[in-house]
Structures are given as C-alpha cells and as structure tokens.
TrEMBL record:
InterPro entries cross-referenced by the UniProt entry: Caleosin-related (IPR007736), EF-hand-dom_pair (IPR011992)
UniProt name for this protein: Caleosin-like protein
Listed Pfam families: Caleosin
GO MF terms, alphabetically ordered: calcium ion binding; monooxygenase activity
C-alpha cells in the first residue's frame, strides 16, 4: 500500500490505497499536523471493507484483505483448537505434547532448510530466552530442559513487535494490514529487506533492547526464508503468522521439489561474485 501525500487540511479526506486493498472515507482525522509521522505511516483505513470488524482479534484465524477467511488448515483438526500464536509454533511440536525441546527447535529449522550453525543459533535464541516465560504458565521453577511450552506461548510475547498478535496470542487483522499500509511504500503487496528494517525501527520501544533483538531475529529469519526477488509477499507473511507456510516448505523439500524462495549461502556467494566482477569491470 502506498502512503499518499497529505496536508493538515486533508487529514480526514477520502483515502484510497493502491492495489485494491484499502479504500475508505473517515468521518474523523487520522493524522495530526503536529505529528508528521502520522502522515508518513498511514493506517489501513479501509480494511473493514474486506474484513468484518478488523480491529477484533481472531482466536484461531489469520485473515487479511487477500485471505478474509484465513488458511483452510486453521479451520480443521488440531490447529482449530489453538490460537494463531500457538499455531505459529506447532510446527516445532511434532509429537504434540505441548512442549518444544531444544532438539525440536533444531530439527524444525533444519527441515526448513537452514544450516546447522543457524539452527543451533535459533536453539540458543529461542529456547534459552523463551523457555522460562512460557514455563510460567505451569510453574515458577525454570525448566531444566529449556523447553518452550505451547500452552504458555502468549507469555513469550515481547515488546517492540508488530502488534499483530495480541497479549493472548490472537491475531489482530487491523495491525497486520497496517504493516503494509505503513511500510510497503510502493504498494507492491510485499516488503523488501529495507522496508522490513524500517518497520523494525519504527516499532522500537524505549529501553527495550531485548525486544529490538527479538524483532530483528524474527523478521530477519522471515526474510531469509521467504524472500523472492528481494521481497516477502503479503500472503507468505500472513501464513508465517499462523505457521501454515512452515508445513508447506517442509513438504516441498521432502517431495524433492525444493523451496524456490529464501536466501541462503549460495545466494550470498553469488552476490559476492557479482560484486567482485563489478569491481573488476
């Protein structure tokens, strides 16, 4: 979605966002002249034309203007009984015992195609930092195995995030649409690495280094896994929130098709080769 140039006198005029995703007229101001950032980061004011009550969080469906009914997988079986945040991590709970061991984290990242070193790094970041917060749902005592508890995953919500998950782990459609109305500056329906970085910086809260680091790891990993031609599509990002895309990647890799998105070591080496050739020329 592309933000439109605006002046203080036009803050409540009809708003049209490119791509057919967001059109609407507001009877009140949605920008403030004394806060230029409100002009620079437009809200998705017309999300309600595509999604019923977009400000109301969905317990088990991640919906968008492109997918107003969410993912079919979220409506059936085990996933239906879980919040969207829980669905996001079920990929790593293969034995369905509600606990994600460090080994589970490692295997999951390897199944997604990440290297041994990156998967080990993910274990340290995820299980060391999020085990105790999720453990608080069942006990005050730290878990000696550094397990992450699916039932308490909402307690692992950190600051400086996108706000798409609410504090109980539900999915807020309005916040998801706002990601693209604010940061997809060209209305492409996708986000570049630079736009994701601007979003991370824009969401930073004061005195929250842990939240800053967590957001960088989460969205950095998302870009490495999902980018195609340098951008992460809106639909891929939506499926990341409910975790359905992880199963699709695993299936594609197991069937020998391979995953045709993402950025790996080979891509890094190719970038280096191109850089060397450019300097020689």
């Amino acid at each position: 979605m592309a933000p439109h140039a605006s002046s203080p006198s036009t803050s409540s005029r009809p708003v049209t966002i490119q791509g057919g995703k967001d059109t609407g007229t507001l009877p009140f101001d949605h920008t403030a002249p004394a806060a230029p950032v409100t002009f620079q980061r437009r809200q998705a004011t017309g999300a309600g034309e595509f999604i019923a009550k977009p400000a109301v969080a969905r317990a088990n469906l991640a919906v968008s203007t492109f997918a107003p009914n969410g993912s079919p997988e979220s409506k059936n079986g085990r996933m239906r009984d879980h919040t969207v945040l829980q669905q996001h991590v079920l990929f790593w709970d293969r034995d369905q015992d509600g606990q994600i061991y460090p080994w589970d984290t490692y295997v999951g990242f390897r199944d997604l195609g990440f290297s041994i070193l990156f998967s080990l790094l993910a274990v340290v970041i995820i299980n060391v930092n999020f085990s105790y917060p999720t453990r608080l749902a069942v006990s005050w005592w730290p878990d000696p195995w550094f397990r992450v508890y699916v039932g308490g995953i909402h307690k692992a919500k950190h600051g400086s995030d996108s706000g798409v998950y609410d504090k109980e782990g539900r999915f807020v459609p309005q916040m998801f649409e706002d990601i693209f109305s604010k940061w997809d500056v060209h209305g492409a329906g996708s986000l570049s690495a630079g736009e994701l970085w601007n979003m991370i910086k824009g969401n930073r809260l004061a005195a929250d280094p842990f939240g800053w680091g967590a957001a960088i790891f989460e969205f950095g990993t998302t870009w490495l896994l999902l980018q195609k031609d340098g951008r992460v599509s809106k639909e891929d990002l939506r499926q990341t929130y409910d975790g359905t895309i992880f199963w699709k990647i695993k299936e594609a890799r197991e069937q020998g098709k391979g995953w045709n998105k993402g950025f790996g070591l080979r891509d890094l080496l190719l970038l280096g080769q191109h850089e060397v050739k450019a300097r020689i020329v």
